[in-house]
């Protein structure tokens, strides 16, 4: 094989982006990372709060069972605590 007599053409395309472009790119990527981290924090809080709701619902079920044993089948007004007896409990009343 013969040696090349003319030098190989140099690639004149840029090898890096400008410092300004790099800084802009890094700023945007960092912003995305911060937002994704915050979303993760919010999802963790959401998960914990869902567990709290389940615990509160279990407490309500326990109270309802206690009320059922004490008062029978009733509806309770959550605003003033008044009791409304269901139809089968009112059967003991005289007409």
Characterization of this structure:
- The protein has one helix at residues 19-71; strands spanning 74-76, 83-85.
- The chain has a domain at 26-89.
- A hairpin with a 6-residue loop joins strand 1 (74-76) and strand 2.
- A two-stranded antiparallel ribbon has the order 1-2.
- The termini are far apart.
- It is rod-shaped and about 110 Å long.
- It is mainly alpha-helical.
- The longest helix is centred in the middle third of the chain and has 53 residues, at 19-71.
- The model has no long low-confidence stretch (mean pLDDT 90).
- The chain contains 1 helix and 2 strands.
- 56% of the residues lie in helices and 6% in strands.
Write the layout of secondary structure elements.
Elements: H1 19-71, E1 74-76, E2 83-85
Antiparallel strand pairs: 1-2
- Poorly predicted runs are none
Shape: rod-shaped
- Sheet of most strands: 2 strands, antiparallel
Query: What structural class should be given to the helix and strand makeup?
Result: mainly alpha
How do the strands of the widest beta sheet line up side by side?
A: 1-2
Question: Looking at the chains present, what oligomeric state does this protein adopt?
Answer: single chain
Q: How much helical structure, as a percent, in the residues?
A: 55-70%
User: How many DSSP E strands?
Assistant: 2
SSE topology string: HEE
What percent strand?
Answer: 5-15%
Overall mean pLDDT: 90
- Count of helical segments? 1
Report how far apart the termini are: 120 Å
Radius of gyration, whole Å? 36 Å
